[in-house]
Automatic annotation (TrEMBL):
Record-level Gene Ontology MF annotations: glycosyltransferase activity
Keywords: Signal
Ranges of residues in domain Nucleotide-diphospho-sugar transferase: 67-267
Span of the signal peptide: 1-17
Protein origin, superkingdom: Eukaryota
GO cellular component: Golgi apparatus
Keyword Signal: yes
Protein name stated in the entry: Nucleotide-diphospho-sugar transferase domain-containing protein
Amino acid sequence: MLLAFAVWCIFCETLFRRQTPANDETFLQAVRRLASPNGDIVLAYVDSAYLDMAENFFKTSLKPHRIRNVLFVASDRRCCRKLRQRHGVACYVLCEDTQASEHTTYGESGFISKMNYRTDVILEAIEHGYTVLHTDTDMVYVKNPLKHINCSRGCDLAILVERGMTHNAGFVYVRPTERGISLYRQMRNLSIVEPTMDDQNQLNKAIIRMKKSRLFNYVRLPNSSFSSGIVYFEEGERMFANDNPSSDIVVIHNNWIVSKEAKIYRFKEHLMWLVDENGYYSKLSAKYLTYDNPLEFKNRTSTLAEERLALRNAFAIGQILRRVVILPSFHCGENERNNMHCALNSFYRIYDFDAAFGRRYREHMFLHNQMVPKAITRSLSDIFRIVSSASKKAIRRDPNKYRQKVQQLHAKSAAGPTSVEIKQWFGKSTEAVLRFDHLYGAFHAFASESEQAAFDNLIQRGFVDATYRQKP
């Protein structure tokens, strides 16, 4: 392992100091060309597995604030080529990593390997006199952070702080001082001695050592402005866009949640996702359906069960009508959140949900995204209610909470309508968005037994229980 890392260090040294077929300049030439007049450079590591995350970061954070002193550093050519072609951004190919297209999560060996690249990149820049803002791409800059980081003369480092005393290696502003350079040299040495240690643990261990020197001067950025995922989303009780808005926020880190799929979903519910891959938002020919979860039942278990059945019904109706399901919000039902509505990731594992349903669904906030055409958002049907014995039973549990003018359609069976009835009622609907007030008891079965069996299997694969942070 030590020999392999030594070879990697020599390889890195070579890549930093020469041009390659993938780059028309050296790393330092790129940094020199892009750095601001005062020597600031923003460095962001990216690979093909997280290309869409990097694109979203560019669209939500760099472009709006006109932050141009940015260099993406990639571990594969494909990633750099696409960033250059699509957005005209500067990208330096550090190497060709065989794991570049593999999704990795915090703590995995592949993740550690990728993150350790960053230490060498940052160290190379600061050793040559540049001040580096190193940033992850699963972030949104609400404001330009370079204008809000108070770390000037005499300051070695400014850093985003996680819950407690943990320093986040994903957002670090490090100046080319003797102590700033020493910190990152210690991190590199730790990666050699303990190759299974990721860069965040290296950073925290190195800071503990450096703090013993009274000369080391660093700034812990305030959580109220530079927020981790647990601070902004969880402690801030923000499930959807516009929940508890704050004018103090500068940077939001979408961490403390497992899997890339869950990160993207959470960004979407907060209107922080601007990647329109394959017309995800903009497709004019797409048809959708929406519904609500207006009722709370006798207890949390009953409410979750009814809402689970309603979600199943939504996907069944969507499959029959070839419409995409726009998710409702769900009742949280937890002590401090009794009056809140929760997002899908509070109950289901997004990784499995995406694998099963893919493009069959959209986030709750979908119609509010700026990329959805007005031709879609303005093409709304009347509001329908499917009436069956099951739906009547659900509504009777709390009739005072249910007051809405709707068009009622009565199922022939007490258990709910079949796929044949659904087609008869809605098969010729031309509106882009078909609206239901609820879907309690709104579907019974497909006419085809084989289609029913396949659908049941799909639901079983997609509805995997999880906690908000996506732990099983």
